[in-house]
Amino acid sequence: MIRAATPADVPVLHALVRELAAYEKALEEARATEEQLREALFGPDPVAHALVAADDASGEPVGFALWFRNFSTWTGTPGLYLEDLYVRPQARGAGHGKALLAALAAICVERGWPRFEWAVLDWNEKALAVYRAVGARPQDEWTVQRLTGPALAALAAQAPGGPANPANPYAN
Known about the structure:
Layout: E1 2-4, H1 10-23, H2 34-42, E2 49-54, E3 61-72, E4 77-87, H3 96-111, E5 116-118, H4 125-133, H5 149-157
Parallel strand pairs: 4-5
Antiparallel strand pairs: 1-2, 2-3, 3-4
Helix pairs in contact: 1-2
């Protein structure tokens, strides 16, 4: 069963995020708190959404998908970006991952969004097999770039007005 996450799901979502980070060998990078997830998903200005995969027999959460809306200047339309998808190891193979992907695809189709995108670690062969099976294709010509920490701060300091200046002409 796939359902929209509720505020009551925040503790299990937090636990699942940490399990995913451990699986991806990056637990030390998963610093989000339950309160941050609650604010991001259910605060006054939600920036993300989540679906929960629950075991059909017990109703216990066994996985999740966290997504947000993106935008393509080429198509002039919004799309859906899947940030995280995770199913607990003991629940894998029962169709929860595919059901989460199908639910997200349905959101795209219902809203008229022509793109559903995500990134996957190149060593995650099991996930890649699921994605190929549902028709997803890699965008090999693109390489993800990330700017964080001191490099982010150094570049921001080069902006006129700087990031800490309330008169920053680039802030919305």
